[in-house]
UniProtKB/TrEMBL annotation:
One of its GO terms (molecular function) is transmembrane transporter activity. It holds the Pfam family ABC_tran. One of its GO terms (biological process) is protein localization to outer membrane. The keyword Cell inner membrane applies. Keywords: ATP-binding, Cell inner membrane, Cell membrane, Membrane, Nucleotide-binding, Transport. It comes from Rhizorhabdus dicambivorans. It comes from the Bacteria. Gene3D superfamilies: P-loop containing nucleotide triphosphate hydrolases. This is ABC transporter ATP-binding protein. The lineage of its organism: Bacteria, Pseudomonadati, Pseudomonadota, Alphaproteobacteria, Sphingomonadales. GO terms for cellular component: membrane protein complex; plasma membrane.
Amino acid sequence: MSEPVLQLRGLSRTFHQADVAIHVLRQVDLAIAPGEIVALLGPSGSGKSTLLQAVGLLEGGFEGSIRIAGEEAAKLDSAGRTRVRRDRLGFVYQFHHLLPDFTAVENVVLPQLIHGAEPAPARARAEELLSTLGLAQRLSHRPSQLSGGEQQRVAVARALANRPALVLADEPTGNLDETTADIVLAEFLRLVRQEGSAALVATHNERLAARMDRVVRLHDGHLS
């Protein structure tokens, strides 16, 4: 049996406001297999984003174990966290966060250059991903010239550009209308499966969650 791409054990996060302790995550355990797409379901404010921040190594203050692609990442220093994010993880957010002065293809090339790729193969990879997502005629367009759905497709291509072991998506269609959200999610799931990555997708939408391989629910800090 393959080692999980993600293994959480006893993950906890507590915030303090005045004299009140707020337990956002309580001893969360989770394993995601290679290639598995898992929906993280829960209402707004349930801690989904906090859990993704923990897995994405974006902030400290967590207790417990976070193993990513077999490496214990919870206690890494800043340089180690940056390395794991660069080499193992891809990110898709509710808002695309594309660089406004760069074209669609340049937004997908840039993370590859940061990762150490040569310009020519990085460009070829970007064009391949964007074409797969139906954007072959939009490569030279800047974000302001793209629709919301097209912008989010570029963000999906960017997240997968470096072939991450695990993609983290936080309400990736939450800023889109229902019809566009359905299309973008279908493209996201298809491309993630095509690339062989695993994914953890936070959503509050039961209908969208049902299209993934497995659903886990976050309630009162507990995962079930």
